[in-house]
Amino acid sequence: MEDKKQEKSIEEAIEGVREYTARRTAEAQKKPGVYIKTFGCQQNEADSERLCGIAEAMGYVNVGAPEEAELIIFNTCAVREHAELKALSLTGQLKHIKAQNPELIICVCGCMTAQDHRMGDLKNKYPYVDLIFGATSPQKFPEYLLNTIRRREDAHESRKRLFFPDSDALITEGLPVRRESSYKAWVSIMYGCNNFCTYCVVPYVRGRERSRRREDILAEVSELAAEGYKEITLLGQNVNSYGKDLYNGEYDFADLLGDICRLEGDFWIRFMTSHPKDASDRLIDVIAENSGEGKTGPRIARHFHLPLQAGSDKVLREMNRRYTSDYYLSLVKKLKEKVPGIGITSDIIVGFPGETEEDFEDTLKVLEEAGFDNIYSFIYSPRKGTPAAEREQLPKEVKSERFAKLLEVQNSISLKKNRAYIGKTVRVLVEGISKNDPSALTGRSELNRLVHFKGDEKLTGRFADVIITDADIYTLSGELAEKNETNGSGDCAW
Ligand code: 5AD
Ligand code: SF4
Protein backbone atom coordinates (compact mmCIF):
# COMPACT_ATOMS: atom_id res chain seq x y z
CA MET A 1 0.00 0.00 0.00
CA GLU A 2 2.78 2.39 1.05
CA ASP A 3 4.72 1.29 -2.06
CA LYS A 4 1.78 2.08 -4.35
CA LYS A 5 1.24 5.49 -2.73
CA GLN A 6 4.90 6.35 -3.14
CA GLU A 7 5.00 5.13 -6.73
CA LYS A 8 2.01 7.33 -7.53
CA SER A 9 3.56 10.44 -6.02
CA ILE A 10 6.82 9.82 -7.92
CA GLU A 11 4.88 9.43 -11.17
CA GLU A 12 2.93 12.63 -10.50
CA ALA A 13 6.11 14.57 -9.82
CA ILE A 14 7.78 13.17 -12.96
CA GLU A 15 4.71 14.24 -14.93
CA GLY A 16 4.83 17.72 -13.37
CA VAL A 17 8.44 18.23 -14.41
CA ARG A 18 7.66 16.79 -17.84
CA GLU A 19 5.14 19.60 -18.40
CA TYR A 20 7.87 22.12 -17.61
CA THR A 21 10.47 20.48 -19.89
CA ALA A 22 7.88 20.28 -22.70
CA ARG A 23 7.47 24.05 -22.43
CA ARG A 24 11.24 24.56 -22.43
CA THR A 25 11.54 22.24 -25.44
CA ALA A 26 8.97 24.28 -27.34
CA GLU A 27 10.71 27.56 -26.44
CA ALA A 28 14.23 26.42 -27.28
CA GLN A 29 13.30 24.03 -30.08
CA LYS A 30 15.31 21.30 -28.34
CA LYS A 31 15.07 19.23 -25.20
CA PRO A 32 16.77 20.77 -22.12
CA GLY A 33 20.05 19.09 -21.21
CA VAL A 34 21.02 17.36 -17.96
CA TYR A 35 24.68 17.08 -16.95
CA ILE A 36 25.60 14.73 -14.08
CA LYS A 37 28.99 14.58 -12.43
CA THR A 38 29.67 11.75 -10.02
CA PHE A 39 32.28 11.75 -7.26
CA GLY A 40 33.34 8.71 -5.24
CA CYS A 41 32.36 5.07 -5.19
CA GLN A 42 30.42 2.63 -7.36
CA GLN A 43 27.35 3.11 -5.19
CA ASN A 44 27.35 6.75 -6.25
CA GLU A 45 27.84 5.73 -9.89
CA ALA A 46 24.78 3.50 -9.54
CA ASP A 47 22.77 6.28 -7.89
CA SER A 48 23.74 8.68 -10.69
CA GLU A 49 22.50 6.21 -13.30
CA ARG A 50 19.13 6.33 -11.52
CA LEU A 51 19.15 10.13 -11.32
CA CYS A 52 19.99 10.30 -15.02
CA GLY A 53 17.22 7.81 -15.87
CA ILE A 54 14.73 9.84 -13.83
CA ALA A 55 15.89 13.09 -15.50
CA GLU A 56 15.39 11.52 -18.93
CA ALA A 57 11.93 10.31 -17.92
CA MET A 58 11.22 13.94 -16.94
CA GLY A 59 12.08 15.12 -20.45
CA TYR A 60 15.77 16.03 -20.17
CA VAL A 61 18.45 14.77 -22.51
CA ASN A 62 21.88 13.76 -21.25
CA VAL A 63 24.65 16.18 -22.32
CA GLY A 64 28.43 15.98 -22.00
CA ALA A 65 29.25 19.50 -20.74
CA PRO A 66 27.78 21.69 -17.98
CA GLU A 67 27.59 24.67 -20.37
CA GLU A 68 25.06 22.76 -22.50
CA ALA A 69 22.80 21.88 -19.56
CA GLU A 70 19.67 23.39 -17.98
CA LEU A 71 19.98 20.97 -15.09
CA ILE A 72 23.34 20.21 -13.47
CA ILE A 73 23.60 17.51 -10.81
CA PHE A 74 26.71 16.98 -8.71
CA ASN A 75 26.47 13.64 -6.88
CA THR A 76 29.10 14.04 -4.18
CA CYS A 77 31.27 11.87 -1.90
CA ALA A 78 32.31 12.41 1.72
CA VAL A 79 34.66 9.49 2.38
CA ARG A 80 37.81 11.65 2.26
CA GLU A 81 38.32 15.39 2.44
CA HIS A 82 39.93 15.46 -0.99
CA ALA A 83 36.68 14.36 -2.68
CA GLU A 84 34.72 17.04 -0.82
CA LEU A 85 37.15 19.82 -1.69
CA LYS A 86 37.06 18.80 -5.34
CA ALA A 87 33.25 18.85 -5.41
CA LEU A 88 33.16 22.25 -3.69
CA SER A 89 35.76 23.70 -6.04
CA LEU A 90 33.85 22.48 -9.13
CA THR A 91 30.60 23.79 -7.60
CA GLY A 92 32.36 27.16 -7.33
CA GLN A 93 33.05 27.11 -11.05
CA LEU A 94 29.33 26.77 -11.79
CA LYS A 95 28.79 30.39 -10.70
CA HIS A 96 29.92 31.66 -14.12
CA ILE A 97 27.78 29.17 -15.99
CA LYS A 98 24.74 30.21 -13.96
CA ALA A 99 25.45 33.87 -14.73
CA GLN A 100 25.29 33.04 -18.46
CA ASN A 101 22.16 30.93 -18.16
CA PRO A 102 19.52 32.06 -15.65
CA GLU A 103 17.29 29.08 -16.58
CA LEU A 104 19.91 26.71 -15.19
CA ILE A 105 18.98 24.64 -12.13
CA ILE A 106 21.95 23.48 -10.07
CA CYS A 107 21.49 20.51 -7.77
CA VAL A 108 24.11 19.15 -5.37
CA CYS A 109 23.31 15.82 -3.72
CA GLY A 110 24.99 12.72 -2.29
CA CYS A 111 27.03 11.91 0.78
CA MET A 112 28.76 15.29 1.21
CA THR A 113 25.46 17.14 1.44
CA ALA A 114 24.09 14.75 4.07
CA GLN A 115 26.42 16.39 6.62
CA ASP A 116 25.05 19.47 8.40
CA HIS A 117 28.26 21.47 8.11
CA ARG A 118 28.54 20.88 4.35
CA MET A 119 24.84 21.63 3.87
CA GLY A 120 25.56 24.89 5.72
CA ASP A 121 28.55 25.67 3.49
CA LEU A 122 26.50 25.12 0.36
CA LYS A 123 23.56 27.18 1.64
CA ASN A 124 25.68 30.12 2.67
CA LYS A 125 28.62 30.24 0.31
CA TYR A 126 27.09 28.96 -2.92
CA PRO A 127 23.89 30.99 -3.37
CA TYR A 128 23.54 29.89 -6.99
CA VAL A 129 22.95 26.24 -5.96
CA ASP A 130 19.16 25.75 -6.20
CA LEU A 131 18.53 22.32 -4.72
CA ILE A 132 20.47 20.26 -2.20
CA PHE A 133 19.57 16.81 -0.92
CA GLY A 134 21.40 13.91 0.73
CA ALA A 135 22.42 10.42 -0.27
CA THR A 136 19.42 8.22 0.45
CA SER A 137 16.67 9.87 -1.55
CA PRO A 138 16.95 9.42 -5.34
CA GLN A 139 13.24 8.57 -5.25
CA LYS A 140 12.56 12.05 -3.87
CA PHE A 141 14.42 13.78 -6.68
CA PRO A 142 11.36 14.33 -8.97
CA GLU A 143 9.37 15.89 -6.13
CA TYR A 144 12.27 18.10 -5.03
CA LEU A 145 12.94 19.25 -8.57
CA LEU A 146 9.28 19.98 -9.24
CA ASN A 147 9.10 22.09 -6.08
CA THR A 148 12.23 23.97 -7.13
CA ILE A 149 10.74 24.72 -10.54
CA ARG A 150 7.38 25.82 -9.05
CA ARG A 151 9.01 28.15 -6.52
CA ARG A 152 11.11 29.70 -9.21
CA GLU A 153 8.00 30.40 -11.30
CA ASP A 154 5.96 31.68 -8.35
CA ALA A 155 6.46 35.43 -8.10
CA HIS A 156 5.14 35.44 -4.48
CA GLU A 157 7.54 32.82 -3.27
CA SER A 158 10.62 34.46 -1.82
CA ARG A 159 12.43 31.24 -0.82
CA LYS A 160 13.48 29.98 -4.22
CA ARG A 161 16.11 27.50 -3.05
CA LEU A 162 15.43 24.13 -1.42
CA PHE A 163 17.48 22.10 1.08
CA PHE A 164 16.70 18.58 2.25
CA PRO A 165 18.87 16.94 4.84
CA ASP A 166 18.14 13.22 4.54
CA SER A 167 14.91 11.89 5.90
CA ASP A 168 13.64 9.23 3.53
CA ALA A 169 15.55 5.96 3.68
CA LEU A 170 12.86 3.88 1.94
CA ILE A 171 13.84 1.66 -0.94
CA THR A 172 11.87 2.35 -4.08
CA GLU A 173 11.84 -0.25 -6.82
CA GLY A 174 11.26 0.41 -10.49
CA LEU A 175 12.86 3.85 -10.78
CA PRO A 176 14.05 4.58 -14.32
CA VAL A 177 17.75 4.01 -14.93
CA ARG A 178 20.12 5.08 -17.68
CA ARG A 179 23.03 2.62 -17.64
CA GLU A 180 26.40 3.95 -18.80
CA SER A 181 27.42 0.65 -20.34
CA SER A 182 25.54 -1.83 -22.49
CA TYR A 183 27.44 -4.83 -21.12
CA LYS A 184 28.44 -3.96 -17.51
CA ALA A 185 25.83 -3.13 -14.90
CA TRP A 186 25.65 -2.20 -11.24
CA VAL A 187 22.93 -3.75 -9.12
CA SER A 188 22.56 -2.34 -5.62
CA ILE A 189 21.46 -5.12 -3.28
CA MET A 190 21.47 -3.06 -0.11
CA TYR A 191 22.09 0.43 1.17
CA GLY A 192 23.67 1.90 4.28
CA CYS A 193 26.04 0.46 6.87
CA ASN A 194 25.78 -0.60 10.52
CA ASN A 195 29.46 -1.03 11.24
CA PHE A 196 30.65 2.37 12.43
CA CYS A 197 34.34 1.90 11.72
CA THR A 198 35.75 4.81 13.70
CA TYR A 199 37.31 6.56 10.68
CA CYS A 200 34.30 6.29 8.39
CA VAL A 201 31.52 8.75 7.66
CA VAL A 202 29.37 6.35 5.60
CA PRO A 203 27.02 5.15 8.39
CA TYR A 204 26.25 8.80 9.21
CA VAL A 205 25.49 9.86 5.65
CA ARG A 206 23.91 6.71 4.22
CA GLY A 207 22.04 5.49 7.27
CA ARG A 208 21.46 1.95 8.54
CA GLU A 209 21.58 -1.23 6.44
CA ARG A 210 18.54 -1.77 4.25
CA SER A 211 18.38 -4.78 1.94
CA ARG A 212 16.38 -4.97 -1.24
CA ARG A 213 13.97 -7.89 -1.50
CA ARG A 214 15.58 -10.94 -3.11
CA GLU A 215 12.81 -11.22 -5.73
CA ASP A 216 13.44 -7.62 -6.86
CA ILE A 217 17.18 -8.26 -7.17
CA LEU A 218 16.71 -11.55 -9.02
CA ALA A 219 14.23 -9.92 -11.40
CA GLU A 220 16.66 -7.07 -12.16
CA VAL A 221 19.58 -9.46 -12.75
CA SER A 222 17.41 -11.70 -14.97
CA GLU A 223 16.40 -8.73 -17.05
CA LEU A 224 20.01 -7.59 -17.45
CA ALA A 225 21.08 -11.11 -18.42
CA ALA A 226 18.30 -11.29 -20.99
CA GLU A 227 19.51 -7.96 -22.43
CA GLY A 228 22.95 -9.51 -22.85
CA TYR A 229 24.86 -7.89 -19.99
CA LYS A 230 28.16 -9.69 -19.45
CA GLU A 231 29.16 -8.39 -16.04
CA ILE A 232 26.88 -7.65 -13.12
CA THR A 233 28.34 -6.14 -9.98
CA LEU A 234 26.29 -6.47 -6.81
CA LEU A 235 26.76 -3.40 -4.65
CA GLY A 236 26.44 -2.63 -0.99
CA GLN A 237 28.60 -1.08 1.72
CA ASN A 238 28.86 -4.52 3.26
CA VAL A 239 27.27 -7.10 0.95
CA ASN A 240 28.15 -9.85 3.42
CA SER A 241 25.40 -8.71 5.74
CA TYR A 242 22.77 -8.78 2.99
CA GLY A 243 19.35 -9.87 4.21
CA LYS A 244 19.96 -9.58 7.96
CA ASP A 245 17.32 -6.85 8.22
CA LEU A 246 14.77 -8.74 6.08
CA TYR A 247 15.08 -12.49 6.51
CA ASN A 248 15.98 -13.15 10.10
CA GLY A 249 19.00 -15.29 9.24
CA GLU A 250 17.03 -17.50 6.85
CA TYR A 251 18.39 -16.02 3.63
CA ASP A 252 21.77 -14.37 3.30
CA PHE A 253 24.30 -13.18 0.75
CA ALA A 254 25.54 -16.71 0.03
CA ASP A 255 21.94 -17.74 -0.76
CA LEU A 256 21.46 -14.73 -3.00
CA LEU A 257 24.67 -15.45 -4.94
CA GLY A 258 23.64 -19.09 -5.30
CA ASP A 259 20.22 -18.06 -6.64
CA ILE A 260 21.78 -15.61 -9.11
CA CYS A 261 24.05 -18.39 -10.38
CA ARG A 262 20.97 -20.50 -11.12
CA LEU A 263 19.51 -17.86 -13.46
CA GLU A 264 19.74 -18.09 -17.25
CA GLY A 265 22.51 -16.15 -18.97
CA ASP A 266 26.20 -15.83 -19.68
CA PHE A 267 27.82 -13.34 -17.34
CA TRP A 268 30.35 -12.70 -14.61
CA ILE A 269 29.06 -11.79 -11.19
CA ARG A 270 31.11 -9.44 -9.08
CA PHE A 271 30.30 -8.01 -5.67
CA MET A 272 31.61 -5.33 -3.39
CA THR A 273 32.33 -4.46 -0.68
CA SER A 274 32.80 -7.28 1.85
CA HIS A 275 33.54 -6.87 5.51
CA PRO A 276 35.98 -9.64 6.57
CA LYS A 277 34.10 -10.26 9.83
CA ASP A 278 30.98 -11.27 7.86
CA ALA A 279 32.57 -13.40 5.12
CA SER A 280 31.16 -16.85 5.92
CA ASP A 281 32.40 -20.33 4.99
CA ARG A 282 29.14 -20.85 3.12
CA LEU A 283 29.88 -17.78 1.02
CA ILE A 284 33.31 -19.16 0.11
CA ASP A 285 31.71 -22.51 -0.77
CA VAL A 286 29.18 -20.82 -3.06
CA ILE A 287 32.02 -18.95 -4.80
CA ALA A 288 34.00 -22.18 -5.18
CA GLU A 289 30.99 -24.01 -6.63
CA ASN A 290 30.14 -21.27 -9.10
CA SER A 291 33.48 -20.15 -10.48
CA GLY A 292 36.51 -21.46 -12.32
CA GLU A 293 37.88 -22.19 -15.75
CA GLY A 294 35.25 -24.41 -17.31
CA LYS A 295 32.21 -22.79 -15.71
CA THR A 296 29.58 -21.53 -18.14
CA GLY A 297 26.37 -19.57 -17.56
CA PRO A 298 26.23 -17.09 -14.69
CA ARG A 299 29.51 -17.48 -12.81
CA ILE A 300 31.28 -15.65 -10.03
CA ALA A 301 34.45 -13.82 -11.07
CA ARG A 302 37.35 -15.14 -9.02
CA HIS A 303 38.04 -11.83 -7.35
CA PHE A 304 37.47 -10.98 -3.73
CA HIS A 305 37.84 -7.40 -2.57
CA LEU A 306 38.48 -7.74 1.12
CA PRO A 307 39.40 -4.47 2.86
CA LEU A 308 42.07 -5.06 5.51
CA GLN A 309 42.49 -1.38 6.48
CA ALA A 310 45.41 -2.09 8.86
CA GLY A 311 47.64 -4.98 9.86
CA SER A 312 48.13 -4.08 13.52
CA ASP A 313 45.64 -5.65 15.92
CA LYS A 314 45.78 -2.56 18.09
CA VAL A 315 44.86 -0.29 15.17
CA LEU A 316 42.19 -2.72 13.98
CA ARG A 317 40.65 -2.59 17.45
CA GLU A 318 40.74 1.18 17.50
CA MET A 319 39.18 1.24 14.06
CA ASN A 320 36.36 -0.97 15.44
CA ARG A 321 36.94 -3.51 12.67
CA ARG A 322 36.18 -6.51 14.92
CA TYR A 323 38.77 -8.93 13.51
CA THR A 324 42.48 -9.58 14.05
CA SER A 325 45.22 -9.82 11.46
CA ASP A 326 45.43 -13.58 12.13
CA TYR A 327 41.74 -14.01 11.46
CA TYR A 328 42.09 -11.95 8.29
CA LEU A 329 45.02 -14.03 7.04
CA SER A 330 43.19 -17.28 7.79
CA LEU A 331 40.31 -16.01 5.65
CA VAL A 332 42.69 -15.23 2.78
CA LYS A 333 44.21 -18.70 3.11
CA LYS A 334 40.79 -20.35 3.05
CA LEU A 335 39.76 -18.37 -0.03
CA LYS A 336 42.92 -19.35 -1.89
CA GLU A 337 42.58 -23.00 -0.94
CA LYS A 338 38.91 -23.32 -1.78
CA VAL A 339 38.88 -21.13 -4.89
CA PRO A 340 42.04 -21.86 -6.87
CA GLY A 341 43.16 -18.90 -8.95
CA ILE A 342 41.22 -16.33 -6.90
CA GLY A 343 42.65 -12.82 -6.84
CA ILE A 344 42.42 -10.83 -3.65
CA THR A 345 42.50 -7.04 -3.46
CA SER A 346 42.24 -4.81 -0.44
CA ASP A 347 41.86 -1.30 0.98
CA ILE A 348 44.54 -0.01 3.34
CA ILE A 349 44.56 3.18 5.39
CA VAL A 350 47.87 4.63 6.59
CA GLY A 351 48.30 7.29 9.24
CA PHE A 352 45.32 6.37 11.43
CA PRO A 353 45.59 8.29 14.75
CA GLY A 354 48.01 6.58 17.11
CA GLU A 355 49.54 4.37 14.39
CA THR A 356 53.17 3.77 15.43
CA GLU A 357 56.03 2.76 13.19
CA GLU A 358 55.61 -0.76 14.57
CA ASP A 359 51.90 -0.79 13.73
CA PHE A 360 52.72 0.30 10.21
CA GLU A 361 55.34 -2.47 9.93
CA ASP A 362 52.58 -4.92 10.90
CA THR A 363 50.53 -3.68 7.94
CA LEU A 364 53.48 -4.29 5.61
CA LYS A 365 53.89 -7.80 7.04
CA VAL A 366 50.24 -8.68 6.38
CA LEU A 367 50.58 -7.21 2.89
CA GLU A 368 53.45 -9.58 2.15
CA GLU A 369 51.78 -12.55 3.74
CA ALA A 370 48.39 -12.04 2.10
CA GLY A 371 50.01 -11.42 -1.30
CA PHE A 372 47.36 -9.03 -2.56
CA ASP A 373 47.01 -8.72 -6.30
CA ASN A 374 46.32 -5.04 -5.85
CA ILE A 375 45.45 -2.58 -3.13
CA TYR A 376 43.66 0.75 -2.88
CA SER A 377 45.65 2.75 -0.40
CA PHE A 378 44.52 5.84 1.42
CA ILE A 379 46.03 8.39 3.74
CA TYR A 380 43.74 8.70 6.77
CA SER A 381 41.48 11.72 6.37
CA PRO A 382 39.72 12.98 9.53
CA ARG A 383 35.95 13.05 9.01
CA LYS A 384 33.90 15.42 11.13
CA GLY A 385 31.60 13.60 13.57
CA THR A 386 33.56 10.31 13.54
CA PRO A 387 35.39 9.17 16.71
CA ALA A 388 38.86 8.98 15.13
CA ALA A 389 38.69 12.60 13.99
CA GLU A 390 38.64 13.69 17.67
CA ARG A 391 42.00 12.06 18.35
CA GLU A 392 45.44 13.58 18.02
CA GLN A 393 46.48 13.37 14.38
CA LEU A 394 49.80 12.17 13.00
CA PRO A 395 52.03 14.68 11.21
CA LYS A 396 51.42 14.98 7.48
CA GLU A 397 55.00 13.98 6.61
CA VAL A 398 54.73 10.73 8.59
CA LYS A 399 51.52 9.83 6.75
CA SER A 400 53.05 10.65 3.35
CA GLU A 401 56.18 8.65 4.06
CA ARG A 402 54.19 5.58 5.10
CA PHE A 403 51.94 5.95 2.08
CA ALA A 404 54.97 5.98 -0.25
CA LYS A 405 56.49 2.95 1.51
CA LEU A 406 53.20 1.05 1.30
CA LEU A 407 52.99 1.66 -2.44
CA GLU A 408 56.57 0.60 -2.94
CA VAL A 409 56.01 -2.71 -1.14
CA GLN A 410 52.72 -3.40 -2.92
CA ASN A 411 54.15 -2.45 -6.34
CA SER A 412 56.78 -5.12 -6.09
CA ILE A 413 54.14 -7.69 -5.01
CA SER A 414 51.82 -6.64 -7.86
CA LEU A 415 54.62 -6.84 -10.40
CA LYS A 416 55.58 -10.33 -9.27
CA LYS A 417 51.94 -11.44 -9.39
CA ASN A 418 51.40 -9.94 -12.83
CA ARG A 419 54.56 -11.42 -14.30
CA ALA A 420 53.38 -14.85 -13.20
CA TYR A 421 50.63 -14.53 -15.84
CA ILE A 422 53.14 -14.45 -18.70
CA GLY A 423 52.53 -17.45 -20.96
CA LYS A 424 49.07 -18.08 -19.47
CA THR A 425 45.73 -17.53 -21.18
CA VAL A 426 43.29 -15.26 -19.36
CA ARG A 427 39.70 -14.57 -20.18
CA VAL A 428 38.81 -10.88 -20.42
CA LEU A 429 35.67 -8.86 -20.92
CA VAL A 430 36.59 -6.50 -23.76
CA GLU A 431 36.00 -2.81 -23.01
CA GLY A 432 36.99 -1.31 -26.39
CA ILE A 433 39.85 0.76 -27.80
CA SER A 434 42.62 1.41 -25.30
CA LYS A 435 42.81 4.99 -24.02
CA ASN A 436 46.61 5.04 -24.34
CA ASP A 437 47.02 3.15 -27.60
CA PRO A 438 44.40 3.57 -30.32
CA SER A 439 45.71 0.49 -32.10
CA ALA A 440 45.00 -1.78 -29.11
CA LEU A 441 41.95 -3.03 -27.24
CA THR A 442 41.55 -3.05 -23.50
CA GLY A 443 39.79 -5.66 -21.46
CA ARG A 444 39.43 -6.58 -17.81
CA SER A 445 40.37 -9.97 -16.45
CA GLU A 446 38.35 -11.85 -13.86
CA LEU A 447 40.45 -10.10 -11.28
CA ASN A 448 39.55 -6.75 -12.87
CA ARG A 449 43.12 -6.34 -14.11
CA LEU A 450 43.60 -4.21 -17.26
CA VAL A 451 44.70 -6.30 -20.25
CA HIS A 452 45.86 -4.75 -23.56
CA PHE A 453 45.91 -6.67 -26.82
CA LYS A 454 45.36 -6.20 -30.56
CA GLY A 455 41.98 -7.14 -31.91
CA ASP A 456 38.81 -6.11 -33.65
CA GLU A 457 36.78 -3.37 -31.96
CA LYS A 458 33.71 -5.53 -32.58
CA LEU A 459 34.83 -7.67 -29.65
CA THR A 460 33.78 -4.85 -27.30
CA GLY A 461 31.33 -6.12 -24.71
CA ARG A 462 32.29 -9.77 -25.28
CA PHE A 463 34.50 -12.27 -23.55
CA ALA A 464 37.80 -13.07 -25.23
CA ASP A 465 40.81 -15.24 -24.37
CA VAL A 466 44.18 -13.50 -24.36
CA ILE A 467 47.61 -15.12 -24.10
CA ILE A 468 49.70 -12.92 -21.83
CA THR A 469 53.09 -11.94 -23.22
CA ASP A 470 54.12 -9.05 -20.96
CA ALA A 471 53.23 -7.46 -17.64
CA ASP A 472 53.96 -4.38 -15.56
CA ILE A 473 52.68 -3.26 -12.16
CA TYR A 474 49.20 -2.27 -13.30
CA THR A 475 48.56 -3.98 -16.62
CA LEU A 476 48.98 -7.15 -18.61
CA SER A 477 49.43 -7.27 -22.36
CA GLY A 478 49.13 -10.09 -24.80
CA GLU A 479 47.65 -11.54 -27.95
CA LEU A 480 44.23 -12.88 -28.74
CA ALA A 481 44.21 -16.64 -28.44
CA GLU A 482 43.64 -18.25 -31.82
CA LYS A 483 40.12 -19.48 -31.24
CA ASN A 484 39.01 -15.87 -30.71
CA GLU A 485 40.35 -14.69 -34.04
CA THR A 486 38.11 -16.97 -36.05
CA ASN A 487 35.20 -15.59 -34.08
CA GLY A 488 36.26 -11.95 -34.15
CA SER A 489 33.92 -11.14 -37.03
CA GLY A 490 31.03 -10.68 -34.67
CA ASP A 491 29.46 -14.11 -34.61
CA CYS A 492 31.17 -15.52 -31.57
CA ALA A 493 29.10 -17.21 -28.97
CA TRP A 494 30.77 -16.14 -25.77
N1 5AD B 1 40.27 8.25 5.49
C1 5AD B 1 40.91 7.50 4.58
N2 5AD B 1 40.36 6.45 3.97
C2 5AD B 1 39.09 6.14 4.29
N3 5AD B 1 38.28 5.16 3.87
C3 5AD B 1 37.09 5.28 4.49
N4 5AD B 1 37.13 6.34 5.34
C4 5AD B 1 38.37 6.88 5.24
C5 5AD B 1 39.00 7.97 5.86
N5 5AD B 1 38.39 8.72 6.77
C6 5AD B 1 38.70 4.14 2.91
C7 5AD B 1 38.58 2.73 3.50
C8 5AD B 1 37.40 2.17 2.77
C9 5AD B 1 37.51 2.87 1.43
C10 5AD B 1 36.27 2.87 0.61
O1 5AD B 1 37.86 4.18 1.78
O2 5AD B 1 39.75 2.03 3.18
O3 5AD B 1 37.45 0.76 2.63
FE1 SF4 C 1 32.66 2.56 6.39
FE2 SF4 C 1 33.29 0.42 7.86
FE3 SF4 C 1 30.81 0.67 6.86
FE4 SF4 C 1 32.85 0.16 5.20
S1 SF4 C 1 32.11 -1.21 6.85
S2 SF4 C 1 31.22 1.70 4.90
S3 SF4 C 1 34.52 1.30 6.16
S4 SF4 C 1 31.77 1.99 8.39
Description:
This protein is of the alpha/beta class and 494 residues long. The protein has helices spanning 2-28, 42-57, 81-100, 116-125, 141-153, 202-206, 214-226, 244-247, 253-261, 281-289, 313-318, 325-338, 357-370, 396-419, 482-485, and strands at 33-38, 61-62, 71-76, 105-110, 131-133, 162-164, 184-188, 190-191, 210-211, 231-235, 268-272, 299-300, 303-305, 343-350, 374-379, 425-433, 441-445, 450-454, 463-471, 475-480. The strands form 5 sheets. The protein has a 6-stranded parallel β-sheet, sandwiched between helices. It has a 5-stranded mixed beta barrel with strand order 16-17-18-20-19. β5, α5 (141-153) and β6 form a beta-alpha-beta unit. α9 (253-261) packs parallel to α10 and α13 (357-370) runs parallel beside α14 (396-419). The longest helix is centred in the first third of the chain and has 27 residues, at 2-28. Residues 485-494 have low confidence and may be disordered. The structure holds 5'-deoxyadenosine and iron/sulfur cluster.
* Spatial gap, N to C terminus: 43 Å
The largest β sheet comes out as: 6 strands, parallel
Count of beta strands? 20
Helix content: 25-40%
* C-alpha-based Rg, rounded: 24 Å
Shape: globular
Mean of pLDDT: 94
Low-confidence stretches: 485-494
Amount of beta strand: 15-25%
Tally of individual helices: 15
Which ligands accompany this protein? 5'-deoxyadenosine, iron/sulfur cluster
Strand order of the largest sheet: 2-1-3-4-5-6
Q: What class do helices, strands and sheet pairing give?
A: alpha/beta
Summarize this, please?
With 494 residues, this protein is α/β, with parallel strands linked by helices. It has helices spanning 2-28, 42-57, 81-100, 116-125, 141-153, 202-206, 214-226, 244-247, 253-261, 281-289, 313-318, 325-338, 357-370, 396-419, 482-485, and strands at 33-38, 61-62, 71-76, 105-110, 131-133, 162-164, 184-188, 190-191, 210-211, 231-235, 268-272, 299-300, 303-305, 343-350, 374-379, 425-433, 441-445, 450-454, 463-471, 475-480. Iron/sulfur cluster binds next to helix 6.
